[in-house]
Design brief:
Mean pLDDT: 87
Low-confidence stretches: none
Number of helices: 2
Radius of gyration: 19 Å
Strand content: under 5%
Number of domains: 1
Distance between the termini: 13 Å
Helix content: over 70%
Shape: rod-shaped
Order of helices and strands: HH
Length: 86
Amino acid sequence: MHLIGATVEQSRRMLIGEAVAAITVSAVAGSLGAVAGAVPFAIAKTGDPLAALAPLPYSLAIAVGTGITLGVTAQAGRRVIRTAAA
């Protein structure tokens, strides 16, 4: 991006924006898939679909995935942007 005139800050913002978009799509798709798989099992096991909808496991998975993704993206992006700008 540096070759077409983007500043380091613009490149960093674009990289983080793309990571946030990927996190959002994967969190929604993963949550829908998890619910689709867990609700029938919960109904068969307990007779109650709400047993599969505990918010803590979903929230924890999304938080851990978000942290790992943003951390790796920021670290790799910092290295690549610094090398390209030099």
